[in-house]
Amino acid sequence: MKKYTNQGSKDTRSGFGAGLTELGKTNPNVVALCADLTGSLKMGDFKKNNPDRFFQVGIAEANMMGIAAGLTIGGKIPFTGTFANFSTGRVYDQIRQSIAYSGKNVKICASHAGLTLGEDGATHQILEDIGLMKMLPGMTVINPCDYNQTKAATMAIADYDGPVYLRFGRPKVANFTPEDQTFEIGKALMLQEGTDVTIVATGHLVWKALEAAEILAEKGIQAEVINIHTIKPLDGNAILKSVAKTGCVVSAEEHQMYGGLGESISGLLAQNDPHPQEFVAVNDSFGESGTPDQLMEKYGLSTANIITAAQKAISRK
Amino acid sequence: MAEIQELERIASQVRRDIVRQVHAVQSGHPGGSLGCTEFFVALYFDILKHQPKPFSMDGEKEDLFFLSNGHISPVLYSTLSRSGYFDVSELKTFRKLNTRLQGHPTTHEGLEGIRIASGSLGQGMSVAIGAALTKKLKGDNRWVFSLHGDGELQEGQIWEAAMYAAANKVDNLICTIDANGQQIDGSTDDVLSMGSIAQKFTAFGWEVMSIADGNNMQAVADGLNKAKDLTGKGKPVCIVMHTEMGYGVDFMQGTHEWHGIAPSDEQLANALNQLEETLTDY
Questions:
Q1: How many angstroms separate the CA atoms of B153 and B157, rounded?
Q2: Which residues of chain A fall below pLDDT 50?
Q3: B281 — contact with chain A (CB < 8 Å)?
Q4: Is CATH 3.40.50.720 what the domain over A189-315 is classified as, yes or no?
Q5: ipTM
Q6: Residue B236's pLDDT is what?
Q7: Terminal CA-to-CA distance of chain B, rounded, Å?
Q8: Residue in A22, A61, A211, A224 annotated catalytic
Q9: B179: which strand partners?
Q10: Under a CB-based contact definition with an 8 Å cutoff, are residues B248 and B33 in contact?
Q11: B156 touches chain A (CB under 8 A)
Q12: Domain span holding position B222
């Protein structure tokens, strides 16, 4: 069994900040906008190094999305930064009309997604953002799993022409993917081969999926682990190939069951090759205050939940 | 500068195009379109430095215009086609299946002259600010214009944008408010009274001027030229342009009733009798 090593836990938002700082040096067309959360989004270095290319818009997210759309006219590549809640639900119509329908090359960069925002509670813990964004025609939706991957994704989306939603988070989580990785939008990453069950995870749940696979192996269950960093467009071939081999699947994400990665996988299987699926996701509920670990356990997004789901999926084959 | 009489002749044809487009598909928004005809004709045939062909989305070294109140698409489509962005015969397809002339303007179908989708109100000022910022970043000293309905100012995003533009000295931006005092449900005063639009923009830090008769071609052209002179001085420029909804067709004039209503065959004939065919009908 392949072993992955945590090179030292880091927050994915810092991966975004590091990627943006790199872009500031390498791509003169990249500009950044922030709605009064420069520190939280780790955009300070970009701002310091490129004051002319940084736009502080204040607490006015709708205006930020519109300005970003306008900045593309003339060839700039705007990266907007605020919390995931204020990057999606609050400004859905602005994104829909001025960015997605207008086909504008805006990168919507969203931090503090999901329950792991922690103590701020449900007002800020959006668990619907992947669904909101994946429903928009032409929108690419990316949810990387760790610091290194978030940095690589941030840099990769600057070279892609079209609207992108990039989702990341607040807590320090295991950093285990290669520092020098090439990020390919829309490509599933096979992390662990197995024959009994496929675990398809995204974002913070990828490391937990690897932990679960290790414990399952001790129980004699060989789990295949796939990292889906791009939820749309979904790498359907990789998932179908794996599920054809293992015969069942567990989807794992820090998001509502409705509208998330798991639902995309269900649609894919239903249309091509139906197999049993178990969901590790929030079940139609808002979050609440608590530490990230407490919340992940209470809402069923822990390593133990993935193990239970895998065993159940296998039993339904 | 173009001759005012020539601009007025073009405006007569644009008004014919507006009522004919809306009549043909029995849907669309003639009232606001007719009220803003002088503005569009003055802008596209006199004020803007622009290149209809080949159309460039980036519009470098061109003046840019953004229509925020996208429902007055008939006047935009007529003006764009009459100034050479696309063939006037395409006006026949307005609002019909597979058309590039969607009910509200969009970049989605590749229609030349359109740089942003609009229709859901309140978004165009932010977009215009973004385009103006890109011009500043690139050292492109041309202007960015936008048009907004007065009712549209009830959207909160407008005031987010107004605050930003003044605070950040976006002074290559000229936003015109079509102050016709009407919206779908009635007069703006009855629906949601906004007080003084000019005082509001002044308080937000804008340079504010007015065009007292937005249906007088000379006044509109002079006003837009004056607005250009007010730019470059550290403030965005707002023009409060007073117009009459439905102007040019007597039975549509001065009422919100024709905001989104199409004329019957008889009403079309009546309207066309009031509007000289100065260029050839499409």
A1: 9
A2: none
A3: no
A4: no
A5: 0.97
A6: 99
A7: 27
A8: A61
A9: B242
A10: no
A11: yes
A12: 4-273
